Amino acid sequence: MDGRTTTTIRPSVSTRLLQLRRRFAGAPWAATVEMAARLGYVARGVVYLSIGLIALLAVARLAPRPRGAVGALEAWGHWPMGVVLLWLIGLGLYGFAGWRVLQSVFDADRQGNSGKALASRAGQALSGLIYGGLAVSTFGLIDTIHDLHRANEMAAERATVAAVLAWPLGSSVVMATGAFIIACGLGNMARAALDDFGATLMCDPKTLAWTSWLARSGYFGRGLAMLPVGVFMLRAGWHEHAAEVKGIGGALWALHAQSGGDLVLTLVALGLMAFGAFALVEAWFRPIRPEAALESDLGIHGTSPLRGASGD
């Protein structure tokens, strides 16, 4: 969407429920996709809020160390009703991955085929793969909790890297992966400064003002968290030593060990929590209209095409 889409009306819960009821009555397939996508944004938000919160607790010495996505979700699994929450998060992540497929492959946002649009859609495709993989890991985590085993996220990552290092030119592949992660981190930090996050939201100007700053803080924090992950991946490829790989939890803990580590880890943790909070904002305020993609590309009729908002 080229312009900013806003309204002076802040949708209430009752208004949203009425809209949802009408959507299911008039376009059930599109409404189902919309609900899956919104649940996906909520699931993404919970994941990042959990990572950031545990990192903050680690700074306060109330948790042993920061954790990555799977480790943070594992912590929820040991709470009362935690397995139910993991089921909801896992289903939400599958829904989000499916929404990314519609965005990237079928251009649900109607971004077009320009160079910028194709780059955005490629990023959405990669995002779908990542969150789909996280959904699989979430349900695998549920199995380990039932079996009274502790998930070892770091060991699995290192085993994967060790297998890649055994390939011909495997070290180059690992280093390229590290460089790509660093590039993604820098890209997130650039988006924090340059993107118009309000263009993808439908809310009043007052809400738009604070949510835009929330998004900028979140994208900068997520980008900053990616940088050490990429550096450790580069080191692992250069030294051909899989044990040097660190996920986001291990990378954040390595930051904490440096001079001023408490401050850096606190800022990154708050940024990750801001990113998670912005995902919850998107779940509520982001226009999600998959009708055009469902009708023109998938052949599901009975919907009314509406242009959706582009962006992450």
Report what the structure shows.
The chain has 312 residues and is mostly helical. It has one domain (13-296). The protein is 71% helix and 0% strand. It contains eleven helices and no strands. The longest helix has 35 residues, at 205-239. The radius of gyration is 20 Å and the shape is globular. The N and C termini lie close together (12 Å). The model is unreliable at 1-8 and 301-311 (pLDDT under 50).
Features:
312 residues, mainly alpha, 0% strand, disordered N terminus, disordered C terminus
Outline the fold blueprint:
Elements: H1 13-26, H2 28-59, H3 69-77, H4 82-104, H5 115-146, H6 153-165, H7 170-194, H8 205-239, H9 248-256, H10 261-285, H11 291-296
Helix pairs in contact: 1-2, 2-3, 2-4, 2-10, 3-5, 4-5, 6-7, 7-8, 8-9, 8-10, 9-10
Strand content: under 5%
Which spans of ≥5 residues are poorly predicted at pLDDT below 50?
A: 1-8, 301-311
- The CA-CA distance between the termini, in Å, is 12 Å
**Silhouette:** globular
Overall pLDDT: 83
The helix/strand order is HHHHHHHHHHH
Helical fraction equals over 70%
**Number of separate structural domains:** 1
Evaluate the radius of gyration.
20 Å
Query: Treating each run of at least 4 consecutive H or I residues as one helix, how many helices?
Result: 11
Biggest sheet descriptor? none
Number of strands: 0
What is the structural class?
mainly alpha
